[in-house]
Amino acid sequence: MLSELAESDVDWAKVTVFHIDEYVGIPANHSSSFRRFLKSYFESKVSLRKIHYVNGDAFNPKHECCRLNKIISRVEIDVACLGIGENGHIGFNEPPADFETDKPYILVDVDEEFRKQQLGEEWFKNIDDVPREAITMSIRQIMKSKVIVCTVPDERKAKAIENVVEGQITDMVPASILKKHRNCWMFLDEESAALLQSPVDGRQSTVEKED
Fold first, then answer.
1. Is residue 207 part of a domain?
2. DSSP code of 45?
3. For residue 188, what are the β-bridge partners?
4. Model confidence pTM above 0.70
5. DSSP bridge partners of 93
6. Which of 6, 38, 96, 134 could link 45 by a cystine bridge, Cβ 3.0 to 4.6 Å?
7. Number of domains making up the chain
8. Residue 119: what pLDDT?
9. CA distances from 150 to 18, 71, 85, 189, 206 (A)
10. Which parts of the chain have pLDDT scores under 70?
């Protein structure tokens, strides 16, 4: 997705980007830092107007949330680009996710299963190295975006996609809240869509209108 964006004809000089989430306590040059990932695969390839990173190694994570909250509260977000985790998380909004907080960025605990998953994928050398906290854009802030583009490939995401698309809206499957958004697009491959009962085509979008 990032490669396609970087190669598009968007006038990036007019675009301001807000980083969604980052581990607490690791520097930007850490091999598992999401800042490092974004810089390598996106920022280094385009000329952005501005990018507001989540500084996970800030001295006080709560103050970092306040700093970001002041900045993002001044603007409207046009597009949010998301993935979905194996447990249905978006950002670091792990189950049970907070659907109620109106703070744009929040400090959260990292799910224990996710920590083990990160270790298994060899992003960290041992479990004690995997951070226990993260700063993330909140569910409500994500839902304020005018458009949400959710890109979810791979067989290991199939159960999460089934729960999101065909299950109930619940804080135990955080991404299920996307069904309440009026302009959410979900892009899947055959593997991630394998468990869906309903037809899926190139325009698949699941929307639940509020009364």
1. no
2. G
3. 152
4. yes
5. 90
6. 6
7. 1
8. 81
9. 16, 24, 11, 12, 11
10. 199-211
What is the reported pLDDT for 162? 97
The two most distant CA atoms of the chain are separated, in Å, by 49
Residue 2 to residues 8, 126, 149, Cα–Cα distance (Å): 10, 29, 12
Instruction: Tokens for 141, please give them.
Output: 């802030």
Query: Which residue numbers are catalytic?
Result: 21, 87, 89, 94
Beta bridge partners of 52: 18
Let me know if 14 is exposed, middle or buried by CB neighbors in 10 A (0-12, 13-18, 19+).
exposed
DSSP 12: G
For residues 164-201, b (16+ Cβ closer than 10 Å) or e, as one string?
Answer: bbeeeeebebbbbbbbebeebbbbbeeebbebbeeebe
Is 201 within the bounds of a domain?
no
Which of helix, strand or coil describes residue 205?
A: coil
Residue-level pLDDT at 121: 77
Query: Would you state the pLDDT for residue 210?
Result: 41
Under DSSP, is residue 129 helix (H, G, I), strand (E, B) or coil? Answer: helix
Could you give the 3-state DSSP secondary structure of residue 82?
A: strand
Ramachandran bin of 196, using left for φ above 0, alpha for ψ from -120 to 50, beta for the remaining angles: beta
- CATH number for the domain spanning 81: value is 3.40.50.1360
What pLDDT is recorded for position 202? 47
